C-alpha cells in the first residue's frame, strides 16, 4: 500500500524544469500543432492516457515522431483508478524520454488532473508517484543541465492522432493482468476495502433473520439514502409511517392480525390472503 509522507521536500527546494500548459479548449489544437512543428520536440513527443474497462484500469504512453508511432508502453493497473493510469502514463513517458538523453521533452495528456497531480508531493493519495517523478527529473538534471519538459493538455477525442493512439493503448492495457510490482495507491486500497465490506454486508443481509419485511420490497442492503428522511425536516407522522413500513410493523392487516387486533390478515381492498407491506406497496391493484 502507498506510504504517505507528511512532508517530502523543503519549501526552498529548487523547482523542476517542468512547465505545465493548459490552454483554452478553443485554442488547444493550435497550441499543440505549434509544439509539434518545433524541431526541438520532434524526436521526444509522447502522448499519454488512462482507461478503465470492466473494473480493470490501465495507462499508456505512445511516442509519436512525424505522425508515426515509434514506441508504445502499456501499463496494466488491475483494480486501480483511471487517474492512476493517467499519472503512470506521464511518469513512464518522461522516464523513457530521459533515458534517450532528450533535453527537450513534450508530454501530451488529456487529463488536467493528472498533469497537476504528477507535480504535487502533498500528503495525499498519489503522492508516491509524484515523488518518483520528482526524483526522476532531479536525477536527470545532473547530466542534462538544459533539460526542459513541457506537459501539455489537449482535449480528448478531437481527432488528434497522438491522443487516439494513446487512448487505444490505454484500453489495451486494461486487458492485461497487472504485475505483482504494481504500485497500489491509497485511494485504490480504500476502494477495495469498501468493496469487500459491501460484499460481506450483502451476504449477511441475504441470510439475516431481521429485516424480512424490507427485503421483500428491496433485497439490497440498506444505504445512506434510506437514512435521509430521518435527518430531514419531514413531518414526524411521515417519518413514523416510513419507519413502520420498513420494519414491517404497520397498521396493515398482516401485522394487526399477528397482534390480535384484526380478525383476518387478508387485504380488505382486494381480498389477497396477506396484507403485507410488499403487497400494499407493490402488488395490490386497489
TrEMBL record:
Tell me the superkingdom of the source: Eukaryota
* InterPro entries associated with the record: RNaseH-like_sf, RNaseH_domain, RNaseH_sf
Q: Which residues form the RNase H type-1 domain?
A: 40-175
Name the coiled-coil region(s).
none
Molecular function (GO) terms for this protein are: nucleic acid binding; RNA-DNA hybrid ribonuclease activity
Record-linked CDD domains: Rnase_HI_RT_non_LTR (cd09276)
UniProt protein name = RNase H type-1 domain-containing protein
Species for this entry:
Mycena pura
Traced from the root, the source organism's taxonomic lineage reads: Eukaryota, Fungi, Dikarya, Basidiomycota, Agaricomycotina
Amino acid at each position: 500500500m502507498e506510504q504517505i509522507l507528511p512532508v517530502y521536500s523543503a519549501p526552498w527546494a529548487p523547482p523542476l524544469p517542468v512547465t505545465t500548459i493548459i490552454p483554452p479548449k478553443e485554442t488547444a489544437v493550435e497550441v499543440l500543432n505549434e509544439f509539434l512543428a518545433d524541431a526541438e520536440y520532434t524526436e521526444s513527443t509522447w502522448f499519454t492516457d488512462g482507461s478503465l474497462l470492466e473494473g480493470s484500469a490501465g495507462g499508456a504512453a505512445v511516442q509519436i515522431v512525424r505522425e508515426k508511432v515509434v514506441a508504445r508502453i502499456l501499463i496494466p493497473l488491475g483494480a486501480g483508478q483511471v487517474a492512476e493510469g493517467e499519472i503512470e502514463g506521464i511518469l513512464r513517458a518522461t522516464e523513457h524520454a530521459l533515458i534517450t538523453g532528450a533535453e527537450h521533452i513534450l508530454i501530451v495528456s488529456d487529463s488536467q488532473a493528472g498533469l497537476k497531480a504528477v507535480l504535487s508531493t502533498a500528503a495525499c493519495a498519489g503522492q508516491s508517484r509524484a515523488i518518483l517523478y520528482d526524483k526522476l527529473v532531479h536525477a536527470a538534471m545532473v547530466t542534462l543541465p538544459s533539460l526542459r519538459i513541457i506537459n501539455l493538455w489537449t482535449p480528448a477525442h478531437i481527432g488528434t492522432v497522438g491522443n487516439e493512439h494513446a487512448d487505444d493503448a490505454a484500453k489495451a492495457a486494461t486487458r492485461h493482468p497487472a504485475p505483482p510490482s504494481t504500485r497500489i495507491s491509497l485511494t485504490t486500497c480504500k476502494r477495495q476495502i469498501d468493496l469487500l465490506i459491501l460484499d460481506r454486508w450483502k451476504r449477511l443481509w441475504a441470510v439475516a433473520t431481521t429485516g424480512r419485511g424490507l427485503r421483500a420490497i428491496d433485497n439490497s442492503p440498506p444505504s445512506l439514502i434510506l437514512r435521509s428522511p430521518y435527518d430531514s425536516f419531514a413531518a414526524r407522522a411521515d417519518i413514523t409511517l416510513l419507519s413502520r413500513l420498513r420494519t414491517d410493523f404497520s397498521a396493515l392487516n398482516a401485522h394487526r392480525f399477528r397482534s390480535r387486533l384484526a380478525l383476518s390478515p387478508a387485504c380488505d381492498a382486494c381480498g389477497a390472503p396477506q396484507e403485507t407491506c410488499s403487497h400494499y406497496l407493490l402488488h395490490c391493484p386497489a
